[in-house]
Amino acid sequence: MTHKTLPKIELHTHLEGCAPPAFIRGLAKEKSLDISGIFNPDGTYAYRDFDHFLQVYEAACTTLQSPQDFYRLVKAVLEESASHGVVYQETFVSPDFCGGGDLAAWRDYLAAMESAAAEAEAEHGITLKGIITCIRHFGPDAAKPTAICAVETFGDFITGFGMAGGEMVGRPGDYDYAFDMAREAGMPLTCHAGEWGGPDMVADTLRDLKVQRIGHGVNAIQDTNLVAELADNGVTLEVCPGSNVFLQATGGWSDHPIQKLRDAGVKVTVSTDDPPFFATTMTHEFDMLARTFGWGDADFNEINQTALEAAFCDDATRAKIA
Ligand code: ES4
Ligand code: ZN
User: Fold this and answer.
1) Which of 128, 150, 208, 233 is most buried, judging by how many CB atoms fall within 10 Å of its CB?
2) Taking phi first (over 0 means left), then psi (-120 to 50 degrees means alpha), and beta for anything else, what does residue 12 get?
3) 14 lines ligand 1 (CB under 6 A)
4) 228-238 per-position pLDDT tens digit
5) Residue 273 burial by Cβ neighbours in a 10 Å radius (0-12, 13-18, 19+)
6) Average pLDDT over residues 118-140
7) Among 174, 306, 150, 157, CA closest to 238
8) Closest-CA residue to 161 (of 66, 208, 92)
């Protein structure tokens, strides 16, 4: 059973987290950077737990030093995604990893990403949109210049604002300045919550940051009232089951809450998060959902439809990918 060619819409990926280890190793060699400690002997990324994962992630990012590097990254990532049937992908991009949050530098990086995305669309028929994310463990002060980069470049390619990084650092409300700025500029919002934090983290994120989507959100399952509220309010969860299973944020596939959330009427979508870090692809996610929960074409069509409706793009793009 393989779902490789089934068309897929993916809302939750981290651009640098989609970088194949061989790609990062190649950049490190070109620049004579020694990051050998972040790889296993078999060439895969090596880390012990989520906090260490974030450190390895940032070490991998040190090899991405120019707009041209990001151009190459976007080309490589979209070729791979398209090979798994992905027709539309949203990816988190962080000005912190592209010139350190400086707006002028960010514009150069963004131009390189956009031209790579346009070429990939022509070559592979895949559309990419970017969601600017602040990094939670860099703190609320670092989130402000990130929000400025977001509102200044909000447009055809940059279609939303969000937050990634260490979920247990601070509280969602600490980041309200950045989210208020993005919301006032009309940007759609999403935030990682309920991957490591409990239902309270999801509830506080909705109340204080007023996001339309939640990254992960799976721990909401621990609070029946919150699940009902998510269903009533039409909040979309960007669920990444393979990531959760690999990082042990949840139990194994058979215990994964995606089925119960869906049964409760919550809008769920399926994404890979950081595919090479978590040994997954969109094909693997679909295969495992079919194998574990018996999902078939009707289920995958519904998931795609939910993702299409929750996508942070304009209606012309939506019509093109539908
Ligand atoms: C991430 Cl899985 C995950 N969670 C939070 N922040 C991240 N950045 C990259 N991957
Ligand atoms: Zn994520």
Assistant:
1) 150
2) beta
3) yes
4) 999 999 999 99
5) buried
6) 98
7) 306
8) 92
Q: Which atom of ligand 1 is nearest to 277's Cα?
A: 10
- Where do the domains of the chain lie? 8-19+64-321
Evaluate if pTM is beyond 0.90.
yes
Residues 6+ apart with CB under 8 A from 316: none
Provide ipTM, 2 decimals: 0.95
Which top CATH class is 8-19+64-321? alpha beta
* pLDDT 10s digits, 57-111: 999 999 999 999 999 999 999 999 999 999 999 999 999 999 999 999 999 999 9
Per-residue b or e along 28-67, where b marks 16 or more CB atoms closer than 10 Å to that residue's CB? beeeeeebeebbeeeeebbbeeeeebbebbbbbbebbbeb
Q: Sheet of 236-239: strands edge to edge? A: 8-14, 86-93, 127-135, 158-164, 189-193, 213-216, 236-239, 267-270
CB-count exposure of residue 236 (10 Å: 0-12, 13-18, 19+): buried
In the three-class reduction of DSSP (H, G, I as helix; E, B as strand; rest coil), residue 257 is classed as coil
Using DSSP, state whether 93 is helix, strand or coil.
strand
Considering every ligand atom, which ligand is closest to the CA of 57? 1
Q: Is 90 exceeded by the pLDDT of residue 1?
A: no
DSSP 231: H
**pLDDT, tens digit, 9 for 90 and up, residues 10-47:** 999 999 999 999 999 999 999 999 999 999 999 999 99
- Centre of ligand 2 from the C-alpha of residue 17, in Å: 9
192 lines ligand 1 (CB under 6 A): yes
Report the amino acid identity of residue 264.
Answer: A
